[in-house]
Design goal:
The chain is built from nine helices and two strands, in the order H-H-H-E-E-H-H-H-H-H-H. About 5% of the residues have low confidence. By secondary structure, the chain is mainly alpha-helical. Strand 1 and strand 2 form a beta hairpin. Helix 4 packs across helix 8. The chain has one domain. The longest helix is centred in the last third of the chain and has 42 residues. The N and C termini lie far apart (about 55 Å).
Amino acid sequence: MMTVYEYLLLFLWFFIMILLSNLIDRMFVRILPGIGYRIFIAPGIIIHEVSHAIGCILTGAKVLEIKVFQREGGYVKHTPPRVPLIGKPIISLAPIFGGVIILYLLTVVFGMRNVDGAIWAGSSSTITGFVKLFEAAFDFIGARWTSVFFWIFIYFLIAITTTMAPSHTDMKHAVFGLGVLLVIGSALIAGFDAIARAMDPVGDTFAMIFGIGIIFEILAVIILTPIYFIKRVVT
């Protein structure tokens, strides 16, 4: 049965995912500035904008225009969603879920399915859970770094995690709906055991998604950090 504490932790890990994605983006744009940056992250931009479009379809919004390779990135123009309250957050935050799903599928394609998001779900402590995520990331690198497929995967990993975070506009559209979900969800879980039990498998699913997402982002940070500091020293 899900507790309010576990429900709030889901939001915490979700925002950690966003912060890590922004960190990766800031690091990589300094490592490879200009047009090279846009070319390198092209797969991530495509996944980002297609995820927005899928979010539109799921919430009843009509997609009017999709642009991927613009000077300042891509965008999706759409009508207002038909789903009230959570429609805008779903559209705005869809790239996070789209990125995680694609990265997980890539681990299957490249035979790297030893990423286990359940390590988050089994942890009763935020700090303990984060330490386990770091351990899983290092274990993943240690077991695979000699494989050519590992470095192909790392390319997609950096390209996708760099572009997973919602833009400032996306966050403005999502923040109200997220706040409502946070307050109402906490109240319902605290007040009704039946809802708390029903939310348990939902929470486990999101815990797995966020856990896997953070592992991937930590992998990207581990790979990019030495390159970032070498670039700063050299330049």
